[in-house]
Each structure stands twice: as C-alpha cells, then as structure tokens.
Task: structure prediction
Amino acid sequence: MDDDEMLATLRTSLTGARDSLTDVRLDRSADAIRARARGRRLRRSLAVAGAGGTALGVGLALTAGGAGTSAPSVHVNLDAWSVNTLSNGLVYVDVRELREPALLRQTLARAGVPAIVTFGEFCAGAPGGDTANLQPVLGKSPLGGGKLTVNPRAIPAGDELSIGIVAAPHQGGFSNSFALVKDGSRLTCGNPGAESGKGGKEPAAPGGHAKTKTPSAK
Amino acid sequence: MEQKRGEFAEFYAAAKDDCLRIVLVSVGDRQLAEDLVAEAFTRAWTSWRTVREHPAPRAWVVRTALNAHVSWWRRRRREVPLAETESPATWQPAGVDDALVAAVRALPARQREVIVLRVFFDLDTEATAALLGVSPGTVGVHLHRALGTLRTQIPSFLD
Result:
C-alpha cells in the first residue's frame, strides 16, 4: 500500500472514529473560556508586577485617566468578580463568587475606593456610625446582591467602605451590607446568620456571632 | 469588542465539539481532551485577531491542543515517579481498528500532528508546514516516518 492509499485508509478510519462520537460535546460556554483567559492575563500580570516590583497597576490593567484627571482606569474581570471604572468616575463592582477578597480589596484601592471586603460576614465600625453618609457613596438605590456602584469621591477622607457580602441562596444570590468605617478602627463583624433574611443594606448589628477585629486582619 | 466576542462565540459554538472529538481520538482520555481543547480555545481567544484570519482556525485549535498535550506530558513526567507515568485509562471508539488508533496515538508528537492535520483537515503539505512553522520538506519527512511506523504495526498496510 503506498502512502496515498495509507492516508486514505487512515482518513476513513479516524474520521469514522470522530464521527462516531456524536455524544461527545464540550460543555463549557464561550463566556467561561473568555473568563479563563482574563484570569490568566491578570495572574500573569500580577506575577510580573510582583516579581519585578513594578506598579501593581500594570497587572490590573490600570491606565492613566484622561487629561486633567487623576482618576485611574481599572478594568479587572475575573471569574469571581469584576471591578470596572466608568467614564463618570464611578466604580462598578460585580461579585459573582465569594472568592479572593484580598485581591478585590487591592483592586478597589487601585480604583480609588478604600475598602474592607468581607465575604461570609458583615463588618461595621462603631454602631450607628456613618451609615447615613452611604447615600452619596452608593447612590439612593444601591444595587442588590453582589453588585454595587461606588462613588469614590464621596468617601470621606480617612474612611473606608466596608463591603460585606454573604451567600443568600433563598434570595437568589447574595445579601450585602455596607458601612463607612474609620481607617484603622476596630470592626465589629458578624456572621449574619438569621439576619441574612433581611437582605438589608444596613450593617449587621453585632449579634451572637459577632467578633471584633482590626482592618489590618483583612 | 462586542463584535470580537460575537465572532469568537460563533466560532467556538461551531468548532468546539468537532475539535474535542478529534483531540479525543488523538489522545484517548476524555477529561484530558476536554482540558486540552478548553486550553486551546482560551489561547485562541487571547490571540483571536490572529486566529480569526487563519486559513484553518479549527486546525489551529487542534494543533494548539496537541501541543498543550506535549507540555502536559512533560510536566507529568517531571512531577510523578517513573513507575506512575503510564498513560491514563484510554478511550477506544467503538467499531474502529483499535490497533490503528493505538498506533497513531503512540507516534511521536510531531508525526502525530502531521497525521492529524492531513487526515482530519485535509491540509496539503504546504498548509501543514505553515501551521506547524516548519518547511514543507520537514512535513514530508515526518509524514514518511509516521507512515513507515504505521506500516510496521498495521499488517493491512503491508498489502
């Protein structure tokens, strides 16, 4: 059998094998593939930034803002969450999975949002503290679940935005709590437990699961 | 960006199952094949400007998946004791010459790539060479050696 005949035989056999695999399908979405690529780009960039001591902004796809503004441009989209700065200076956050809170905090900081991020518990400063000032920061109608839009310019100097998100399957995703806390102040954190049903935007009141910690623990 | 996403999504939807089946025939392990093809499509998205202009984008994906398999195998050989480097449980298609499929899988990586590209995508020598980044003469050598190996292992090829 010469080479051409062999190739023809191989083509018949192997394409027959392929064609018999009608039940073999790749059950991954194009979105999952793109997210995988995004995550990889970010990890590589972070590694480069870490190894080379270069600005983390390189890794986070940060670029200088437009002329006349010092606002950074941040567009970080991981499988777990996204942080994107908007042209109006707001920062849009979309948390889809409760993973990598420390990296989220770093990313928010790069976007101009000093934040404390807790997944699975809510944290607040002194009871009744600065929640009244949240409206300029989060708007009149904060987005629900893991989504929020933050106005970093409205965060008072020396304050941090405490972002607590917990899983709330019965509410279709997440329950959240926000608070403004003084930078470096002690926090009261609690597993919302029975309070998660409120789905409220108010900081969790210290309850049976409450504990205190300092922001540096994040 | 939206157009780019749409183009990729369209290509992905049309090509993913076919690419998976070809890679599965080539490597024999379902989970591994899925991982390799997902990896290849990830790289395709990363290099979408290049891939979308490629004359045979599906062949590009399959070739990338098979290259990733080589890298995976090298890592595995470094990371596990020699006694454990046997191939994982392999998948055999029904109604296909087992010896032929096994012989193709056992070919050296580049020879197997040439066979896969020639057989599944009907690429000629020049197109195969362009995809692999080698000369047409090198493709001819790999093909000749691959067929020579298969001829020694598959009795019907001796006829």
Notes: Residues 79-89 of chain B have pLDDT under 50 and may be disordered. Chain B has eight helices and no strands. Residues 1-90 of chain B form one domain.
